[in-house]
Amino acid sequence: MKLRNALCAATAVSVMAAGAAHAENLVIATVNNGDMIRMQGLTDDFTAKTGHTVEWVTLEENVLRQRVTTDITTKGGAFDIMTIGMYETPIWGANGWLVPLDDLSDGYNVADILPAMAGGLSHDGTLFAAPFYGESSMIMYRTDLMAAAGLEMPTAPSWSFIAKAAREMTDRDNEINGICLRGKAGWGEGGAFITAMSNSFGARWFDEDWNAQFDTREWSDTLNFFVNMMGDAGPAGYATNGFNENLSLFQQGKCGMWIDATVAASFVTNPNDSLVADTVSFALAPDNGMGVRSNWLWAWALAIPAGTQKKMAAKQFIEWATSNGYIELVAEKEGWANVPPGARTSLYQNPNYTSVPFAQMTLDSILSADPNNSTVDPSPYVGIQFAAIPEFAGIATEVSQEFSAAYAGQQTVAEALAKAQDITNEAMEAAGYR
Amino acid sequence: MATQHSRSAARLMMAPAVILLLGWMLLPLTMTLVLSFKKYLPLRGGDLGWVGFDNYVRFVSSSAFWPAVTTTLIVVGGVLIITVALGVLLALLLDQPMWGQGIVRILVIAPFFVMPTVSGLVWKNMFMDPVNGFFAHLSKAFGAEPIQWLSQASLPSLIMIISWQWLPFATLILLTAIQSLDSEQVEAAEMDGAGAISRFRFIVLPHLARAMTVVVLIQTIFLLSVFAEIFVTTAGAFGTKTLTYLIFQRVLESQNVGLGSAGGVYAIILANLVALFLMRVVGKNLDA
Amino acid sequence: MARTVTTHRKILTTLLAWAVGLLIFFPIFWIIVLSFKSEGDAIKTPIQVLLSAWSFDNYATVQERSDYFKHFSNSVLISLGSTFLGILIAVPAAWSMAFVPSKRTRGILMWMLSTKMLPAVGVLYPIYIGFIRLGLLDTRLGLVLILMLINLPIIVWMLYTYFKEIPVEILEAARMDGARLREELLYVLTPMAIPGIASTILLNVILAWNEAFWTLNLTAAKAAPLTAFIASYSSPEGLFYAKLSAASVMAIAPILIMGWFSQKQLVRGLTFGAVK
């Protein structure tokens, strides 16, 4: 490490001598997922190009959220760049806590960012965070098990087909579950999944006067459908399974289908990690014939807190990390299947990438998600698997805990919904919406 | 008189330290009190003015409040019972002559040094995971269906994890106490024909009373504020939300600092009630 | 009359005690084992895990991903610093409470302990803002101060119970001999108080080392100790048992080893005045 720092410093000195701006040391808070950890390994490329050095603060998702939220609301300035999502960006941008990214260099080509991503990371048309990778959700399924069940997956299936296929594919003796879905408490885990699913059942979080809607038939249909299907065809203990647990199950060949983030496609098709890499195919997330699919939209993005003293260097880093140049760097080292997906239009026009099996389905899923019209009935909020208001994370975490307790059989679906209704209305009252 | 003189000199010398200490510790308490009367929402601009007792009313009337109090008492009570009971047995065992006593003692106290975060993560993933965890493998080896520890037996699992961490502490204090037991008294009782159980009941147990009080008191202080173990295992789901966790949820997840601070004041009140209760019931033992 | 113990009984006790000891220690043993395995092997059945190949790869990976020694040295500095600062402040206070007690001493002690039950998260925002103003955010000094503050009640209480055990007669005798306060402290009481102070230090180093709320929330890159180090290994994508085990071992090993070496000393201090 010392040696590396010394090398960095040496590079910095030489760059400075060449006439560049003076070198800064950037502190970046980020989440501990595979793509971000890969980026940490490639930081030397950034240092070599600009002379700036980077210190990483890598945290687990929930801890990261706490940590950066405390810092941004108090203008603490502990970080020069923060890794945040599509939920935080518009709220923080509206509060003036983030540096607008409206003067990125021409070479960066802002127009190349997928419109869905740019839209979700903007407030009033100003971009506040640059997407490192973007995702929607889709079905990943085992072609061999589907064939064995005598079924064929349509490219745009319905929930009733999925439930039927899940039950057919289930083979308890061989530890094969027809379907693996998130049941874990947390607004970004099971909460995100069930919310996106409920959209396709015609449910919504709030009516136009911000009244909670958990007492509606649509929500009860959603939750009952989910619980019944998972009870028949889901893995044991699915109430504690999140993204990571399901990924691990799918990679071990214990799931027939898995509906989750499109970024998972590169992990389940990677033969180094996945036992079923050869037999995975993809389809759009299911719908219920109501005109809305159950896929979400999300991006992990890099933003600059307004409190930092190092705006210029931070912008240089963001331009480096979210550029086509970075994508090419990863492709060169790890292959095209492992580049950060879902952020740039040009990636999906690149012949090297379009041959990757999940590329087209990822793009189609992203394009079919619309945060501004996410529900069948009109709703007052923006966002698909979340409502972009500051109170949502807290409320949805509690609500999803009630749901998970229902998944685990500790209470009935009706009880969970009744509690969810109370929790949400209470919190909205406290926040002054109602 | 010299003694009188040095007494007041001592008092004078110590006074700044005591005052500093008290002031230093009043600081967080005062801040909590002030915030609890404010509408303080960091995501909506921070301090939005005084709201009287609104936060207090809202915190108690929330549907999550009473379950959280119950959960807190169950967790604290459960861990206390387990650690004291097992602690006494373990202390009695370790007091017996044996080979390798030193090493056994080291093995027993080891969990006390493990960070709560690490302990939570290790138990959750490597042991209680229903697919790849150690217990799951164990049940499968016996042909049984693996238990969903953290969802279907959430509170017992949590109590087990925390007890594992605190058992060494209880054992050590109780062991030290047992070792100070007058062995002649025990032998005399033995000669009088007292059986092992009545020796334990009438000689050992009373002797341990004071040590047990200390264990209960110190552990209660730490157990009431248990947080990391819940955060990394269930994150408050499946009925494991304690009062401390509920306050965390209000402050950091819902970003309502005023509401959370009111909860903090309730937590102090609860803590003092528990302390008062303990002092009444077992506190006599503490007075020298 | 000395108690006679049959060898038979000693064997039984030994077996039982070792079984219990190993059972309690098992979780730690198991993560040590897993930390030397590949991710793929770490999720297999226990027998398969034991039989699979051993390697140091996980430690190398963890070190490459996050600078262990930076976090380690922060942990050492913060836990030692806060403990010594705490002792410095607490000794005079505990001293006066033990030797010049007033009617309120007991009440003050209980009240101090009860402030430990104040949920830390409630004051996160004011403390955070205060730290920004004072320039203490992400500094080791800031953490030393805050950990000293939260452990102070325990330190004072432990020292108080210890000092109370020192017989007052010795003091009186010294005073009769005309010893002045300074001499009284230096030559009479200090030697008797050293063991108590030593075990207080040990316990508080452990508590400070394991503190995971403030150390995580008040640091970024520079002052982050091992608690922050471990926060980047819980549930990343894919399999992670082996890496998590290695990181866990690295985080707890130093304090575990310190605890083992000093356990005799620690045991004496842990009595909290429980033993008369």
Written overview of the protein:
- The complex is a heterotrimer of chains A (434), B (288) and C (276).
- Chain A is an alpha/beta fold and 434 residues long.
- Chain A is 43% helix and 14% strand.
- In chain A, helix 1 (2-17) packs parallel to helix 3 (43-50) and helix 17 packs antiparallel against helix 18.
- In chain B, strands 1-2 form a two-stranded antiparallel ribbon.
- The radius of gyration of chain B is 24 Å and the shape is globular.
- Chain B starts with a helix and ends in a 6-residue tail after the last helix.
- Helix content of chain B is 74%, strand content 3%.
- Chain B has a domain at 65-240: MetI-like (MetI-like fold, Orthogonal Bundle).
- With 288 residues, chain B is mainly α.
- Chain B is built from 13 helices and 2 strands; from the N terminus they run αββαααααααααααα.
- Chain C has 276 residues and is an all-alpha fold.
- Chain C has 2 domains: 7-59, no CATH class; 66-232, MetI-like (MetI-like fold, Orthogonal Bundle).
- Chain C has 14 helices and no strands.
- Chain C has helices spanning 7-34, 39-42, 46-51, 57-65, 68-99, 105-115, 124-134, 140-165, 168-176, 181-210, 214-217, 226-230, 241-261, 263-269.
- In chain C, helix 5 (68-99) runs antiparallel to helix 10.
- Chain C starts with 6 loop residues before the first helix and ends in a 7-residue tail after the last helix.
- The mean pLDDT of chain C is 85.
- Chains in contact: A-B, A-C, B-C.
